C-alpha cells in the first residue's frame, strides 16, 4: 500500500518526472514482453526480412524497445547484406503486425535501424503561439511550432531558402505568420527587413502589412520590379562582401532581408505575360542561388508542387510539405525516397492545418511538426506590437482553432 501511495503522490506532484522515470519504463517493459519479443521471429520471417545461407537462417536482432507513449522506438540490427530500403518497403506490414497506426524507418548507423511504431498523434491539438518578444532572435533557429517529439520546430533562415507547399486550407498561413511572429522583435529593432508579394490581392499579407518594409499585392509589373530590385541588392551586397566576409552577421550594419512570396507559382508559372514570367523566374533564381551569404532569404509558398510550376525547387534547402493531394507529390516536394521513409504528407488530415513534414538538405530523415496557430486576434496584437510596441495579454481560449489564412 505504501508503494501505491508513493506512486500516486509522485504522479500528482511531478507528473513529468513520473511519466519519464516510472510509467514509460513500465510500459516499455510491458510492450517488449507482450508484443515485440513474442511476435518478432514470426513477423520478420513472414515479412521476408530474414536471410538464408547454406541452410542457415539469419534473423534481424531486436536490440532495444523504448516506449514514449505515442510511439514505440524499436532498435534493430540488420542481417549482413541487408539495406534499410528493405525495411522501408515493409513499413505498412510491420505497423499492422505490431498493432501500430504507422511505421517509420530511421538509420542510426551502419547495420542499425530504428523503427518508429506510432500509436497516436501528439500533434492533434493546435499549438498556441508564445508571447511576443522577450527572446533574442536567432536567424539560424527560427521557432515556428513544435515537433511531434515535443521539441521546438526551428527553421533556418540565415544561409537557407524555404519552400512551403500545401493544398488550400493546409496551413501555409500558419507557417508564414509563425515566422513573422518570431521575427517581430528583430523587425521592430531594424535587424530584419521583410519584403512581401501577395498575388492574391492581399488576402494573406494584407492581414498585417505593418510587418513589411514593402509589399505588393499582385503578380504584374510592380511585383516583378520588386523581385528584380531585391535581386540587384543581392548582387550589390555580395560584391561588397567579396574578400571581406563570407556570411552576413549582425555586425554588418545592414538588415537581414526575407522575401516572402505567397503563391510563388502566380509569378513564375501562371503569369500570362511571357516576358514578365521569365523576368520573375530569373530574379527569383538569382535571389535563391546567390542570396544566402549576403543575408537574403526567400520564403516561397506554393499550392502545386509540380516541376513545371516550380522548376528550381532544388534551390530551396528547406522544404515543408503540408497536406498534399497525392502520394507522388511528397517526393516532388521533399525529395526522392522520402515518402518511403514515412513522410506521408498526403495522409495529413483536413482537421490538422499546420501539420507538416520538413526536410532539410543536410539531414537524411524528414521531421514531422506543427506550426503555431496564429489567430486573427494574434495578428491584431502583432500589428500593435510592430506599430506601438504594445503586447496583449494571452487569451484563455488559445486552444480554439481558427485558420489565419
UniProtKB/TrEMBL annotation:
Q: Which key words tag this protein in UniProt? A: ATP-binding, Nucleotide-binding
Q: Name one Pfam family in it.
A: FtsK_SpoIIIE
The terms under GO molecular function for this entry are: ATP binding; DNA binding
Q: Which residues bind ATP?
A: 166-173
Q: Which residues form the FtsK domain?
A: 124-331
This chain belongs to which protein, by name?
S-DNA-T family DNA segregation ATPase FtsK/SpoIIIE
Q: Where does this protein come from, organism-wise?
A: Saccharothrix violaceirubra
Amino acid at each position: 500500500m505504501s508503494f501505491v501511495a508513493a506512486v500516486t503522490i509522485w504522479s500528482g506532484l511531478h507528473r513529468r518526472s513520473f511519466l519519464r522515470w516510472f510509467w514509460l519504463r513500465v510500459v516499455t517493459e510491458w510492450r517488449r514482453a507482450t508484443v515485440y519479443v513474442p511476435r518478432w521471429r514470426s513477423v520478420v520471417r513472414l515479412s521476408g526480412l530474414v536471410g538464408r545461407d547454406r541452410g542457415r537462417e539469419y534473423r534481424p536482432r531486436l536490440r532495444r524497445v523504448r516506449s514514449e507513449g505515442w510511439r514505440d522506438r524499436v532498435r534493430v540490427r540488420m542481417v549482413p547484406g541487408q539495406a534499410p530500403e528493405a525495411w522501408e518497403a515493409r513499413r505498412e506490414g510491420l505497423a499492422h503486425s505490431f498493432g501500430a497506426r504507422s511505421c517509420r524507418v530511421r538509420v542510426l548507423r551502419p547495420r542499425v535501424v530504428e523503427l518508429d511504431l506510432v500509436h497516436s498523434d501528439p500533434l492533434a491539438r493546435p499549438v498556441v503561439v508564445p508571447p511576443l518578444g522577450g527572446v533574442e532572435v536567432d536567424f539560424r533557429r527560427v521557432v515556428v511550432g513544435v515537433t511531434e517529439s515535443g521539441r521546438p520546430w526551428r527553421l533556418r533562415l540565415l544561409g537557407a531558402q524555404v519552400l512551403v507547399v500545401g493544398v488550400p486550407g493546409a496551413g501555409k498561413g500558419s507557417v508564414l505568420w509563425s515566422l513573422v511572429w518570431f521575427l517581430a522583435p528583430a523587425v521592430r529593432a531594424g535587424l530584419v527587413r521583410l519584403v512581401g508579394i501577395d498575388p492574391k490581392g492581399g488576402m494573406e499579407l494584407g492581414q498585417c502589412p505593418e510587418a513589411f518594409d514593402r509589399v505588393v499585392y499582385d503578380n504584374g509589373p510592380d511585383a516583378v520590379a520588386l523581385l528584380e530590385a531585391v535581386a540587384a541588392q543581392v548582387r550589390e551586397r555580395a560584391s561588397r562582401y567579396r574578400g571581406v566576409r563570407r556570411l552576413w552577421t549582425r555586425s554588418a550594419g545592414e538588415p537581414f532581408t526575407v522575401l516572402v512570396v505567397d503563391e510563388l507559382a502566380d509569378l513564375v508559372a501562371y503569369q500570362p505575360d511571357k516576358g514578365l514570367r521569365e523576368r520573375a523566374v530569373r530574379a527569383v533564381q538569382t535571389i535563391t542561388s546567390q542570396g544566402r551569404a549576403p543575408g537574403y532569404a526567400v520564403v516561397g509558398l506554393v499550392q502545386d508542387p509540380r516541376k513545371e510550376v516550380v522548376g528550381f525547387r532544388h534551390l530551396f534547402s528547406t522544404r515543408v510539405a503540408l497536406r498534399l493531394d497525392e502520394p507522388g507529390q511528397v517526393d516532388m516536394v521533399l525529395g526522392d525516397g522520402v515518402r518511403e521513409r514515412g513522410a506521408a504528407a498526403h495522409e495529413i488530415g483536413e482537421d490538422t492545418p499546420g501539420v507538416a513534414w520538413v526536410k532539410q538538405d543536410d539531414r537524411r530523415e524528414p521531421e514531422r511538426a506543427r506550426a503555431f496557430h496564429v489567430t486573427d486576434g494574434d495578428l491584431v496584437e502583432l500589428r500593435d506590437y510592430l506599430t506601438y510596441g504594445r503586447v496583449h495579454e494571452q487569451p484563455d481560449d488559445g486552444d480554439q482553432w481558427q485558420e489565419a489564412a
